[in-house]
């Protein structure tokens, strides 16, 4: 299918959170994203697509102003670009975007998804089917829900609220204070006896503190599913030490942004699995490529996001669907918003997310209040 990129537009997508999102390295009270809208054509037929470039300072180097500037610069390069865009020719698009967005993976990710959304709409298939036509697709996921670092009473109240809505798996942010973190986990476990936990330190722990926390979870008999990014992104020795000591899968997140990072993780035996994120990896195609490689290496997969809206979470779910599912679905951040900017993409009942199966992402804008 020969496709021409007619135009790229962007607008800030700043949406309030229900409560501040607090992790070991910082906090935000709103999303820090840019919505990208693409227009593409093929043989006289035009379709539009959407993508979300979601930043999360200080985890990401890019913020809203950086994304806007880079998209505007790249739009001049990509506008009127024409070529074959099909799954078997996806590398052509990847290389063009790599040139246009060198050093700006967040902006690149939003633009790529917007283009792929429109291209899949041209083909009249869901994006996951376009990405991997011959694969067995999984289109329904049971997601966790994130609990930010905070006062223990507040964390417990949040947990009870989500529990009442059917959520049974809590991704609990840790990494600032082992003692506080363990008291929070213990309080939740004692109050809600039927829940499981995933803990995420966002690179906040030393290997010693991370292992101390793992030992404490065993003493308390917590039902722990995995431990995400316990140590600093670049400290693969510390990550490997925790991986050797852990009784649950250690998942690398901040440590893996590129294929070279993935190769380093594998070489160092620094994790049991990888958290795939479209935004940090620079797009759906790069995330999919790393996911396929991780599967081949026998690693577990998590699919997550960067405090994204329904738009971004739908894109992430399509990559997970194209992979035939993931071990840990972390597709919850749209639930953390006080206001939505889009509709469609998926339906949900409590923590169960099911893709609609419509063309592309099947997401549309809604009027912001």
Explain this structure.
This protein has 369 residues and is of the alpha/beta class. 38% of the residues lie in helices and 27% in strands. It contains 12 helices and 19 strands. It has an 8-stranded parallel beta sheet with strand order 8-9-10-11-12-13-14-15. Strand 14 (300-303), helix 12 and strand 15 form a beta-alpha-beta unit. Helix 5 (152-164) runs parallel beside helix 6, helix 7 packs parallel to helix 8 (236-245) and helix 11 (284-296) packs parallel to helix 12. The longest helix is centred in the N-terminal third of the chain and has 19 residues, at 105-123. The radius of gyration is 20 Å and the shape is globular. It starts with a strand and ends with a strand. The mean pLDDT is 94.
Can you lay out the helices and strands and say which pair or pack?
Elements: E1 2-13, E2 16-23, E3 26-30, E4 32-42, E5 45-55, H1 64-78, E6 82-84, H2 90-100, H3 105-123, H4 127-131, E7 140-142, E8 145-147, H5 152-164, E9 169-173, H6 178-191, E10 196-200, H7 207-219, E11 224-228, H8 236-245, E12 250-252, H9 259-268, E13 273-276, H10 278-281, H11 284-296, E14 300-303, H12 310-322, E15 328-329, E16 342-344, E17 346-349, E18 352-355, E19 363-365
Parallel strand pairs: 8-9, 9-10, 10-11, 11-12, 12-13, 13-14, 14-15
Antiparallel strand pairs: 1-4, 1-6, 2-3, 4-5, 7-18, 16-19, 17-18
Helix pairs in contact: 1-3, 5-6, 7-8, 11-12
